[in-house]
Amino acid sequence: MAEIRRERPEDAAAAEAIVAAAFGPGRFAKTAYRLREGVACVGELSYVALEGARIVGTVRYWPIMIGAEPALMLGPIAIVADRQGKGIALALMQTTLAEAKRLGHRAVVLVGDEPYYGRAGFKRIQPYGRITMPGPVDFARLLGLSLVEGALEAMKGEVAKARLDEPVAASGCALGR
Ligand SMILES: CC(C)(COP(=O)(O)OP(=O)(O)OC[C@H]1O[C@@H](n2cnc3c(N)ncnc32)[C@H](O)[C@@H]1OP(=O)(O)O)[C@@H](O)C(=O)NCCC(=O)NCCS
Q: Is residue 69 part of a domain?
């Protein structure tokens, strides 16, 4: 089984290459990327999966606001093509979601496929429109998870950047990827 551990500065280039290979250049046009621009990721929740010395998976989280409430956005998450389908992404999510809960985060959202992310506990945010995005979004793919019972269900409003225009250059995950 892959080793799951916190991302280190020297892991960043490999992690970013995995995301670039998985999502391609079109990723920068996505609404989720707009929310990451100019905002540092949550460093304690950047994790990688390793097999020996090889980095085979990556996950990062960004801080967001949902209306007036702070929350997290999961992603990007990606696994190298030749190691997909072995439970590595699920292990990355289980480890980091438990850590996010331990750190006191209350709720997590993401844009993705419910049949997959449902394995980690994510569900469509309903009723559709209770939580919105600052751009086009397919509500069937806007998924959420409460880390504290009922937390996400009590949130409503537009997802927004958690912090504006802070100096993020040194953070290691400044611009999304
Ligand atoms: C999506 C991704 C992160 C999953 O990582 P992974 O380590 O391969 O996932 P796991 O091994 O935990 O789970 C794999 C299982 O999920 C299924 N699955 C993967 N992507 C899925 C999707 N989008 N919808 C439904 N099921 C999916 C696989 O078919 C596999 O099913 P099985 O266990 O019945 O064989 C990885 O495949 C990846 O990086 N893909 C490229 C990027 C991408 O497409 N991301 C999706 C963003 S929404």
A: yes
What pLDDT digit, counting tens, does each position of 83-136 carry? 999 999 999 999 999 999 999 999 999 999 999 999 999 999 999 999 999 988
Domain-located, residue 170? no
What is the CB neighbour count within 10 angstroms for residue 176?
Answer: 22
User: Would you say the CB of residue 84 lies under 6 angstroms from ligand 1?
Assistant: yes
Whole-structure pTM value:
0.93
The residue whose CA has the least distance to atom 40 of ligand 1 is 78
Full domain range(s) for residue 76: 3-162
The SS3 of residue 100 is helix
Residue nearest to atom 10 of ligand 1 (CA): 87
Q: What is the CATH number of the domain that holds 84?
A: 3.40.630.30
Tokens of 80: 């190298």
Report the domain count for the chain: 1
